[in-house]
Design brief:
This protein has a single domain, classed as Aldolase class I (TIM Barrel, Alpha-Beta Barrel). It contains twelve helices and eight strands. The protein has an eight-stranded parallel barrel. The longest helix has 17 residues. The chain binds phosphoenolpyruvate. Phosphoenolpyruvate binds next to strand 8.
Length: 264
C-alpha cells in the first residue's frame, strides 16, 4: 500500500499568509521530486481551509475536528459540521487526537459519533490512538489500544459502508512521544502496529470493509528519524506535528517513506 505522510499543523501558523506560504513551499518541493510511494496531506486550522484548498496542489487537506452533534446544520454554537468542512474543500478529518481527548474530554461515544458524521459526508477519517507514559511504563499499551479501538469494532458492526479501505487511517501516537522528542524504538512501534492490525482484522466485517488497515506512527517524527520508522513493514506512514511546520523537514519525512516503501 502507498504510504501517507500527514502534517497536523494544530493551532499554527498565526496568519493565513504564513499558511499559504507553507503549503506553497511543500508543493514546490513536491514538484521537484517523485514521491511515487507516498501521499501527502496537511491538516491546517479550520479557518484557513477554504483559502488553502484553492491553491493548485496534489496535497490532500484535512481538518482537525468536526461536530459530533450534527453532520449538517443545527444550533451547536462553535461547532463546524462534516458537511461544512466538506463544502470548504477538506476531504479528511482527525478524530481522537490525544490533545482532543485530554483538553476537551472527548470520550469513545463522542469519537464514534464524529466518525459516523464524517463518513456520512464522504470525509475520510484519521483515527488516533495511543497510551500515556504511565500506561506505557506499566505495560498496558496493548490493553489501552484494544479499548480505544472498540470504536472501530462498533463502526464495523453497525456500518453499512461498502468500503472503508480508502477512508479510514489509524494513527498510533504514544501520548508521551507527542511533541517531546522522545520516541519508542522502531521494534516497539513495529510490534504495536502489528498488534493494532491484528486487533482490527479480528473484528467482524473487517476483512471485507478494510482489508489490511493503514496504520501510521506519530510522535516526534522528524527528518532524522523518519527513515528508520519507514523501514518497518507494518508502519504505513507518519502523522507529524512539529516537523510538519517546515516544508523541508516535512518533505524529507515524506521522501524517506516514499523511498522505503518503493523498495519494499
Ligand atoms: C501530533 O501532534 O500528532 C504529533 C505527532 O506531534 P509531534 O510530531 O510534534 O510529536
Amino acid at each position: 500500500m502507498q504510504a501517507w505522510v500527514i502534517g497536523n499543523w494544530k493551532q499554527n501558523p498565526a496568519t493565513l499568509q504564513a499558511a499559504k506560504t507553507l503549503l506553497a513551499d511543500i508543493n514546490t518541493e513536491l514538484k521537484s521530486a517523485d514521491l511515487a510511494a507516498c501521499r501527502l496531506m496537511v491538516v491546517p486550522s479550520l479557518v484557513h481551509v477554504s483559502s488553502l484548498q484553492q491553491q493548485e496542489t496534489a496535497i490532500a487537506i484535512g481538518v482537525q475536528d468536526i461536530s459530533a452533534h450534527s453532520a449538517e446544520t443545527g444550533a451547536f454554537t462553535g461547532d463546524c459540521s462534516a458537511a461544512q468542512v466538506r463544502d470548504a474543500g477538506a476531504t479528511w478529518v482527525l478524530v481522537g487526537h490525544s490533545e482532543r481527548r485530554q483538553y476537551y474530554g472527548e470520550d469513545e461515544a463522542t469519537l464514534y459519533q464524529k466518525i459516523k458524521n464524517a463518513l456520512s459526508q464522504q470525509l475520510g477519517v484519521i483515527f488516533c490512538v495511543g497510551e500515556t507514559k504511565e500506561q506505557y511504563d506499566s505495560e498496558q499499551t496493548f490493553s489501552v489500544l484494544a479499548s480505544q479501538l472498540t470504536v472501530i469494532e462498533q463502526l464495523l458492526a453497525e456500518s453499512n459502508e461498502e468500503s472503508l479501505a480508502e477512508r479510514l487511517i489509524i494513527a498510533y501516537e504514544p501520548v508521551w512521544a507527542i511533541g517531546t522528542g522522545k520516541v519508542p524504538t522502531v521494534e516497539e512501534v513495529a510490534s504495536t502496529h502489528t498488534h493494532i492490525k491484528a486487533v482490527i482484522q479480528g473484528y467482524a466485517g473487517a476483512e471485507a470493509a478494510l482489508g489490511e488497515p493503514c496504520v501510521l506512527y506519530g510522535g516526534s517524527v522528524n527528518a532524522a528519524n523518519a527513515a528508520q520508522f519507514a523501514q518497518a513493514d507494518s508502519v504505513n506512514g507518519a502523522l507529524v506535528g512539529g516537523a510538519a511546520l517546515q516544508a523541508d523537514s516535512f518533505f524529507a519525512i515524506a521522501a524517506a517513506f516514499s523511498t522505503a516503501k518503493s523498495n519494499s
